[in-house]
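Q: I'm building a small set of examples for a reading group on sequence design. Run inverse folding on the following structure and report the sequence directly after it, with nothing in between.
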């Protein structure tokens, strides 16, 4: 499967897709490091992106800060080891070459020393030779503080090391639908804040999701989100690529858009 170009159109998600200011393919990168809080984030959230990058020829790696042992979905006696095994299988489905799993306490990543998290992002980034970091959007997508903290650590390291950071985002309309239907706290983005819209095939993502048996067998919110997003995924730059960095210059040159500094409009 490869990313295809999205023709300017309107979909049920609302808003123009593939507008002049948006690009329609993920950037070229030599080595992509996804920075996640929990096992399953790499599949439920970043699955299509990781698969596309691998298909494009990037080497891909995943850093996961916690073992996800606090999940209320899994009932296994030793959820920690169950989720580690699930992560390993799911990563294989997505063509992920390397997993670096840390053992921070699930649910309290925001209480951990920030500098330590940033340092560990850096250690893994250097280990895998990352030239692009991939993360959840600033609001954590689901609003989970662990997700937000993982992304903050990725951006902080990227700013020091001169790496670009691409975030997976949820369109505002999908977030509002989910919040209305499930009383959740998804954080969406308006169209003007979405930089890349990609057409996706979810076959391998769904296989990876299925590997996370403890989390995916009864997960109506996930099912509904995938249904709402249909065959598209959405991304924004949290740190724009500059000359010599992954994502520069082909993608942005297409729209003639100037290269912008780190956004100042974060919530
Ligand atoms: Zn998560």
């Amino acid at each position: 499967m490869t990313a295809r170009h999205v023709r300017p159109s309107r979909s049920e998600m609302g808003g123009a897709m593939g507008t002049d200011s948006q690009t329609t393919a993920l950037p070229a990168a030599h080595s992509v490091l996804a920075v996640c809080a929990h096992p399953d984030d790499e599949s439920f959230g970043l699955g299509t992106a990781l698969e596309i990058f691998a298909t494009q020829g990037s080497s891909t790696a995943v850093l996961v800060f916690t073992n996800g042992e606090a999940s209320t979905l899994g009932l296994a006696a030793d959820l920690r080891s169950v989720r580690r095994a699930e992560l390993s299988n799911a990563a294989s489905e997505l063509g992920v070459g390397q997993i670096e799993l840390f053992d921070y306490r699930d649910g309290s990543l925001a209480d951990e020393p920030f500098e330590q998290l940033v340092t560990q992002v850096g250690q893994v980034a250097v280990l895998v030779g990352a030239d692009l970091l991939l993360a959840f959007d600033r609001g954590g997508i689901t609003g989970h503080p662990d997700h937000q903290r993982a992304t903050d650590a990725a951006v902080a390291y990227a700013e020091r090391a001169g790496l670009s950071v691409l975030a997976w985002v949820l369109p505002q309309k999908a977030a509002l639908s989910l919040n209305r239907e499930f009383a959740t706290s998804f954080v969406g983005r308006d169209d003007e804040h979405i930089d890349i819209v990609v057409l996706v095939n979810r076959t391998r993502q769904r296989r990876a999701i299925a590997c996370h048996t403890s989390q995916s067998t009864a997960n109506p919110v996930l099912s509904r989100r995938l249904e709402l997003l249909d065959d598209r995924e959405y991304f924004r730059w949290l740190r724009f690529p500059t000359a010599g960095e992954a994502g520069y210059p082909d993608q942005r040159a297409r729209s003639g858009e100037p290269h912008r500094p780190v956004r100042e409009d974060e919530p």
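The longest strand covers residues 59-66.
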